[in-house]
Amino acid sequence: MKRSIGAAAGAFLLALSLFPSPAFPLLYIDINAPGGKRMPIAVADVVVGPGDPSLSRGIPKILSDDLVLTDLFDLIPSTAHMETVTAAHFSGKPLSFPGWKMIGAEAVVIGNVEVGGDRLSIEMRLYDATQGTLLLGKRYTGTPAQLRSIVHRFANEIVYTFTGVRGVFGTEIAFTARSAKSRGKELYIVGMDGQDLRKVTDNRSFNLFPRWSPDGQWLAYTSFRTGTPIVYLRNVSTGAEKEVVRFGGSKAPGGFSPDGVWLYAGVSQAGNSDIYRVRVVGGAMEKVVEGWGLEVSPSPSPDGRRIAFVSDRGGSPQIYVKTIGVAGETRISNGAGYATSPSWSPAGDRIAYTARSGGRFIVATVAPDGSGSREVVSATDGDCEDPSFSPDGRSLVYTYRKRDYSALKIISSDGLRQRTLVSGLEDVGSPAWSPGR
Amino acid sequence: MKGTFSWKWAVLALSVAALVAVGCAKKQTVKSEGAPGSASAPGAITEAPVKEAPPAPVAVAPATPPASAPGIAVTEEKLSQFDDVRFDFDKSEVREDGRKACGVVADYLKKHPQAQMQIEGHCDDRGTAEYNMALGERRATAVMTYLVSLGVPKAVLSTVSFGKEKPLDPGHNEGAWAKNRRAHFVLK
Q1: Domain residues for A429?
Q2: Which of A30, A144, A195, B3 has the fewest CB atoms nearer than 10 Å to its CB?
Q3: ipTM over 0.90
């Protein structure tokens, strides 16, 4: 993180003298610098006009929890705040910035909410306390049920303002877990902050391999509810479903092309799994990779030109990369042991996968040309598997498994920070992070 | 964590504030238009109405009803009069002991030409679910191919893979894994 105040203040003055109007932001967080300092930020109690007075602290709580999750900010506790924000601050009255600076704040967030019936209107502002300038202002309207997603949106704007990369609040993770009663597997969705856990399917069979469409509206998955595996598309908000792959034996969707036109899947025929892609509209199917080995788990690159996939053609499952429509495939895992479940990073520069090391499964990443492979997370007492990148590429969700205990965990892509997303469900697996919201 | 940073930041903040105060003073002489009041005028707020997500560019008509009804009971272990065929880790070759079990199945099917047999392929719970799903299909197909080589008509045979989803033994040791890497015969 580069917080350009102290050290850079001099540089800024120099820049001012060289350039009449500086084009770079004064406050800036370099998200690529590991272990950097956090930006001190104050989120003031929100002004509540008509409406629920608990929102005054409730909205800052949602926002603060989001900002803490990024590991980019330090929240200045409200007990230290010296200025009470009022409605007048939203109609021209300036904040007392020296007071905010005195308690260490470099940025200040204020908000004003009005609730009328089933509508709420929230105005949120972000100030640079060191300069006394408005960095960002948004007015949102929605229903009270949308409150969390409104605040998540503003949190994403704050992260974008300071880093240039949009935050991932409000995104969700789809996954599978075993039902204690039926012993089947059902699909679940949970918010990236661990809130709002819900069951998506409830048909007491095996529902597996959820994959998000690029617009975040659909999940492709395999269900055994008719007795044999079929790949369906399911609309996440309405529950409407459509069959997309019935052909073949075992089948598992791997991912959509970025334009949403194709769904890539591993499909077995006569015991031999190959990679196919099927047109989401119309259902036309074509083979993309074939071979005598098992070819599974296609993960399209963010530009849609290539796929990473698993093949055991060399004797053990390994990760390969292929350019669509071009002959030839390159192995990018090291050829030893066991390498599965590739997940391409949103920037296209890394591929995360499950590797086997010392009898344990671990999560590693590698460049698409096979160089620079490195471990992201492992556990001495269990297995770490099935990585899926967050839409900003800063985190990975994965499955942790230790005998009968399993959990979904989130780790920063540099491997430094980790938290548990879901625990307490049985045999969780196949996490898939939704696109940005 | 909230308790630990306040001191550090208070000290840092004071020094930073001092530096910034210098910076601001200088800056405002340079940037004469930029009074804080004008920057925070209400006109600077952009409106961003929060509505339901935009319509999906992927237009998919619902072709099947929502999957809330219970499915076919596929999660229960089906009793079989035949022994399972077992496999080595990450392998699908039918071993000597498995050939014996297949021989019994082949004899039965030849004596009962009306019978229909489904071969389920299963894996142990190590490794990735997708890969195991394909591996289970390859195991079931290897058994089917072997039965056909023994003279069983292919038409009475079918395969389905459950991957690692339906372990016979829920344990996490070599004994359980060996039982779970199997082809299971179910008369239909």
Answers
A1: 172-433
A2: B3
A3: no
